[in-house]
């Protein structure tokens, strides 16, 4: 089976009711990145940060995977699909995707403030003030903040380098190192970008833009990749 690698961002979850970050009305219009998504913000006001992610988590529990998440599961019938997501939601997993790598962490998990390798599933929506890791230190969201290392980049690069087809869905490609994954797509690999808005993406030759929202865009992608004339069929 051909390897289909999909890089997803906030846009794929927009039709599930989760706000993107940089669109009009996006989260970073409402909140200050420095206050809620950096180690400095956490140091200054952990309660504000905890409240921000608790609210995101509470909302996530009410959301469901949409047609785009489900379409990527359908593609597993035809391809070896690997999803690299910048999203901290769990909608790919809930849709049923088998291979999902979260490069910016996972909202429904907590990590020790002292030992980041101690990671826990969160029951419900809240990390409480008095929650502690097994070594007695407070817990914080298991989310990669600006200025922090992105340990999952190494496996993400490995997956990207093995792609036969590369698909980008719903990301502004504004955030590094995630956006630099495109530099690791093997030469002559077809790249599809699904986004209703213009996305700047330099230096790629074989690139096809599907200018649609994720749900419709993935439907079109499935048609293209599984049609009789597709080079990748079978
Ligand atoms: N379907 C597909 N794409 C959409 C939709 C939709 N319904 N609605 C919006 N988009 C597109 C926008 O046009 C934009 O290109 O989704 C993209 C969202 O971009 P951002 O808000 O910048 O989100 P993302 O690229 O995922 O952000 C990267 O930034 O703040 C951090 O850690 C956070 O992982 C996040 C990272």
**Count of DSSP-assigned helices:** 8
Q: State the name of the first-level CATH class of the largest domain.
A: Alpha Beta
- What share of the residues lie within helices? 25-40%
Number of domains: 2
Helix/strand order, N-terminal first: EHHHHHEHEEEEHEEEH
Q: What does the average pLDDT come to?
A: 95
CATH H-tier superfamily of the largest domain = TPP-binding domain
Major sheet description: 6 strands, parallel
Strand content: 15-25%
User: Rg from C-alpha positions?
Assistant: 18 Å
Question: Can you count the beta strands?
Answer: 9
| CATH fold field value of the largest domain | Rossmann fold
Ligands, deduplicated: adenosine-5-diphosphoribose
Unreliable stretches: none
| Net shape | elongated
Structural class based on helices, strands and sheet pairing: alpha/beta
Structure, described:
With 234 residues, this protein is α/β, with parallel strands linked by helices. Helices cover 27% and strands 19% of the residues. The protein is built from 8 helices and 9 strands. It has a 6-stranded parallel beta sheet with strand order 3-2-1-7-8-9, sandwiched between helices. It has a 3-stranded antiparallel beta sheet with strand order 5-4-6. Helix 5 (67-74) runs parallel beside helix 8 (214-226). The protein is elongated and about 60 Å long. The mean pLDDT is 95.
């Amino acid at each position: 089976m051909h390897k289909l690698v999909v890089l997803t961002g906030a846009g794929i979850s927009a039709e599930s009711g989760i706000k993107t970050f940089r669109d009009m009305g996006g989260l970073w219009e409402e909140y200050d990145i420095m206050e809620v998504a950096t180690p400095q913000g956490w140091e200054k006001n952990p309660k504000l940060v905890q409240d921000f992610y608790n609210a995101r988590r509470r909302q996530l529990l009410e959301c469901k995977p949409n047609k785009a998440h489900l379409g990527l599961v359908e593609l597993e019938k035809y391809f070896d699909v690997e999803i690299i997501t910048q999203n901290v939601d769990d909608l790919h997993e809930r849709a049923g995707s088998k291979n999902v790598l979260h490069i910016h962490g996972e909202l429904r998990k907590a990590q020790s403030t002292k030992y980041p390798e101690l990671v826990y599933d969160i029951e419900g929506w809240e990390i409480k003030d008095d929650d502690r890791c097994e070594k007695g230190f407070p817990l914080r969201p298991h989310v990669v903040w600006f200025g922090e290392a992105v340990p999952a980049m190494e496996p993400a690069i490995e997956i990207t380098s093995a792609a036969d087809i590369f698909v980008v869905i719903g990301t502004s490609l504004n955030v590094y190192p995630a956006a630099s994954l495109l530099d690791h797509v093997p030469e002559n690999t077809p790249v599809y970008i699904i986004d209703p808005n213009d996305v700047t993406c330099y230096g790629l030759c074989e690139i096809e833009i599907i200018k649609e929202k994720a749900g419709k865009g993935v439907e079109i992608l499935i048609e293209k990749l599984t049609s009789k004339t597709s080079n990748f069929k079978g």
